[in-house]
Amino acid sequence: MNVQEKILSQITTDTVVLYMKGKPQSPLCGFSNTTVQILNACGVRDFAAVDVLADLEIRDGIKVYSDWPTIPQLYIKGEFVGGADIVREMYEQGELQKLLQSALA
User: Fold this and answer.
1) Which of 40, 88, 97, 105 is least surrounded by Cβ atoms within 10 Å, i.e. has the fewest?
2) Is the whole-model pTM more than 0.90?
3) Residue 34 structural domain
4) Which SUPFAM superfamilies match (predicted)?
5) For the chain, where are the E strands, in sequence order?
6) Section 68-79 average pLDDT
7) How does pLDDT run across 11-35, given as a tens digit for each residue?
């Protein structure tokens, strides 16, 4: 399985997948931490997290897969939602909560 197939498998196996630096309980960058905190504020604590620092092939591959240059990256139901700024903006507007509620229903 190549890295793109692995990523596709990851984002379609779990409803909510966050590619981040570190782990949810110990994020290793402020943007990853912010995204985890937003998910938690939405009541989502059980999500798949992929530590891109532990797998450089995934770290490079996810940027190609999404055509998005930065980490973290949030996926819901296999769809790329965005990075930390987009997630924060969606949360502030109430859009992320609706998307998550629908996806997890």
Assistant:
1) 105
2) yes
3) 3-104
4) Thioredoxin-like (SSF52833)
5) 16-20, 22-23, 26-27, 48-51, 73-76, 79-82
6) 97
7) 999 999 999 999 999 999 999 999 9
